[in-house]
Amino acid sequence: MPTDHANHYRFGYSRDEMERLENQHRVWAEDNRRFLARACFGEGATLVDLGCGPGYTTLDLARAVGPQGRVIAVDRDGERSLPLLKQRVEAAGFSNVETREADLEVFDLPEGSVDGVYGRWVLMYLPERAAEALTGRVARWLRPGGVCALAEFCNYRDIHIHPPSAHLPMIAQALMRAVAADRGCNPEIGNVLPGLLQRAGLHVELRVVTKAVRATTPEWRWPDAVFREHLPGLVDEGYLTREVLDAFFADWDERSREPDAVFFASPVMEVVGRRS
Ligand SMILES: C[S@@+](CC[C@H](N)C(=O)[O-])C[C@H]1O[C@@H](n2cnc3c(N)ncnc32)[C@H](O)[C@@H]1O
Asked: Does any domain span residue 19?
C-alpha cells in the first residue's frame, strides 16, 4: 500500500522525530515494561502492535512471544519507520515479526484471530470517530481470553514545570488544538479509552502513570525536543503567537540550566481490556 497518507502523522518522519520517539521510549521504558507485565502476553501468542513506529516496543513483544509466537507490526509509514523496525528485527535475530504498511482507519483482521493487541500513543493521531471504531475492531480480533493493552495521554493540560512558567498553559493549549484540528483527533483520548473498551465488551482495568523529569539529566532531552522541534511550527500555523513562544522559551532555557527544575509530563492512561 503506498504511503500517500504518511504526512497525516502530526509530527512527521524526520530523523529528529525518530530520535525523539526513541528517547521518549527510553524515558517511559520502565512503565512500559510494567504495562506489558500486566497484559501477560505469553509465549506462542499472536500479537498486533498498532502504530508500531520504528518498533521500540515491537522487539519486546517479539521477545515475549518467543519463536513460536508472532507479532504483526502495523504502521502507515513504510518509508522510514517500518524499514528501521526491519533493521532492528534483523539485528536482534528475530524471525517472528511481520510488518504491515496500513492505515489503521481501515486496517482489519479476522474475528478471533489474535491473542493480544498493543498500542501506545497512536489513537490520539486518528480522527476520534476512527479511533472509536478501531477499538471496536480490536475487541473483535481478540480470541476468548485475549487481551489488549492500549496506552494514551490523558489530561494533557496537566503538564507543568516547577518552578512554574506562566506561559506553559498556553503552550499546552496550542499543542492540543493543533492535534485536535488535525482531522478531529483527540489528544486526550486516554480519558475516554476505558469507556470505549468497556462498550466493546471487554473487561477493563486501568492505571494512570505520570512522569517527572529533572533538568540537567538526559531525560530532559525528551520534553526539550518536543518543544524545540514542534513549537515553532505552531506559530507558523497560527496556534501560538511569536511573543508567547519567545516568552516561554526564555522560561524554558532558564529552567533547563537549573538542576532543581522539574518537568511534569501529561499523564498516560494505560488500559488493559480482556475478552472473556
Ligand atoms: C507517536 S508514534 C508512536 C510509536 C510507538 N507506538 C511508540 O510507542 O513508540 C505514532 C505512530 O502512529 C502511526 N500512525 C498514526 N496514525 C496512523 C494511522 N492512521 N495508521 C497507521 N499508523 C498510524 C505513526 O505513523 C507513528 O509511527
From this structure: yes
Ranges assigned E (strand) in 24-81: 46-50, 70-75
Residue 1 lies in a domain: no
Whether the pTM exceeds 0.70: the reply is: yes
Q: How many domains does the chain have?
A: 1
- In 3-state terms, what secondary structure has residue 170? helix
Burial of 247 (0-12, 13-18, 19+ CB in 10 A): middle
- Residue ranges making up the domain that contains 227: 6-274
Give the position, in ligand 1's atom list, of the atom nearest the Cα of 151: 8
**pLDDT profile of the chain (276 residues), mean per 10:** 50 87 94 98 97 96 98 97 96 97 98 98 95 98 98 93 97 91 89 98 98 96 94 95 98 97 97 98
Distance 81 CA to ligand 1 centre (A): 9
- Ligand 1 pocket member 267 (CB < 6 A): no
CA of 195 to the centre of ligand 1 (A): 22
- Residue from 18, 75, 84, 150 to probe ligand 1 pocket by mutation (most atoms less than 8 Å from CB): 75
